[in-house]
What we know:
alpha+beta; single chain; Aldehyde Oxidoreductase, domain 3; 4-stranded antiparallel sheet; 3 domains
Amino acid sequence: MKLIRTEDAVGQVLCHDITQIIKGEKKGPVFKKGHIIQEEDIPVLLSVGKDNIYIWEKEEGILHENEAAEILCKMCISDHMTRSGVSEGKIEIRADCDGLLKINRAALKVVNGFGQMMIATVHGDFPVQKGDKLAGTRIIPLVIEEEKMRQVEKLIGEKPILQLKPFPGKKAGVVTTGNEVFYGRIEDTFTPVIEEKLKEYGGEVCAHDVLNDDHTKITESILKMIDDGADMVLCTGGMSVDPDDKTPLAIKNTGARIVSYGAPVLPGAMFLLAYYEKDGRKVPIMGLPGCVMYSKRTIFDLILPRAMADDEVTADELASLGEGGLCLSCMVCTFPNCGFGKGV
Length: 344
């Protein structure tokens, strides 16, 4: 790479894209890398503020921004993703199907802390749709030492930074609890909400029991649904500390491993998450507080997509939801394109 006066650059080869910005009209390359500069190009280059310009002179061990962007892209991309071509040293990665985006945050931080290179992503552990933009990569200077790129490759290893886990279409058993519903005192308005949320990720209700506040019956119902092939069991109601609320006890009595009873999320503090493990299966069991029925977005919206993608949630991850765990109940809901659940 060599710096020369633009007016002396006729016949030389551009070593980077030249961007033109016209407010309200366009932003993009007016000349692309590799373009051989012509006499008539000089006024255009001067009009975009290029009194001096870099021309390409290949040096051993030095990578152009486009070559480096390819290396960064390779560090990120994995199955179920597509990539753009390289433009102005940048490559974009998009989802090739609906799914849950997972990010190796430690590796991403290594790259972005290494200097002279960057990868920007959308937030991990959230659902994305086919065609959604996931990440963009580029180096900061026009050229970079090849050895530096190889060093960061070695540090992060062979596992891609991004992973997209498709939604295979899960079947959920629903156990509706509460004397008020069982005896017909009120209508069950909870189950229709769950059905709609499952549909967002290609899921469906495969079994539904309505039971009174008898923890023994609730336990038996959960276990039968699992034995009959339910991929998860969702228990509605009975999650508070009232004496008639027996759902947490019923879930515990299944022998499931309780991850957490309670979460630092509003709405959804009385949420319970457990995993029932048997014969190689790991079935999520959730106790859903009443807010899931009447609030637009709750803790359930943060955990359900992960369950639908077979992505296990840990107690530490639940604890980390406190920062960003307050839904602001906006007049117009834009979730997941908002800060809810995005503390890390």
